[in-house]
Amino acid sequence: MAHRHDHPHEHEHTPGQGHHGHTDMDWAEMGPLLESSAELFASLYERALGWLAKEVTEPGLIVDAGSGPGVVACLFAETFPGARVVAVDGSAPLLERARARAERLGFTDRFGTITGELPDVLGELEYPADLLWASRSLHHLGDQRAALAAFAARLAPGGMLALMEGGLPPRFLPRDIGIGRPGLQARIDAVQAEWFTRMRHDLPGHVAETEDWPALLSAAGLKPTRTHSFLLDLPAPVSDRARAYVVASLSHMRDKLAEGLDAEDLATVDRLLDPDDEASVHRRPDVFVLEAHTVHTAVRPG
Question: Which of 107, 153, 114, 108 is nearest to 132 (CA)?
Fold first, then answer.
């Protein structure tokens, strides 16, 4: 299970997020893309971690539940120099990338990984967490209410759960891009929402839940504290890294959502992805990245 941030959208998502049937994805193969996209979002995550640092002081153990390739886990190690950070993910190849990143950045002595499926794998933690971060990993679990209870059980008294779920769909292009019908991304959003519903429904042990995250955190025995959304705003003209992210995201959407888009929209997306087309996102000067992620926090009573 990878981070939504660690992948483009399903957001991922950001490409990204699912495990069954037509919603399958190969997290290991997506490793370089997940890592690059997370790096693009580094400023957003740095602001989110700075926000958390105002209330979580000198944590001993930070757990990134669903860490993907470890970009954010390493940001935690940088933000909290006195903490041990453990990256937890179901993909061993992604955790290999996380360990390599931690070694490059000099965090090896206080950086660990655990491979296994959430939430049960959290039972392998040696001691309770002072901060448990779950970034778009919860929605990959069939029974989200039970998973939140398991997350809460792994917190130390006074420990905080930071849950990144929700936000706003990404925008890369103006409403009218000069080819196809205006409003392409709004229609992609609608198809994406249907895909996400199918992905959730196909998960083992799926339980439908109203996505009232503070209420679910309360039901897990935690005290909700704050909710805040963080914006990534990269205006046109974008950097090569941001343009590559847009290309990868649209390519991922094209593969994932093809059955839900009509022929005209598919043709438009294909033109946008054709590097030889002057109207493509490879060449257009009006490409931008605008996206928002929401974090909900809650504390285990002391």
Answer: 153
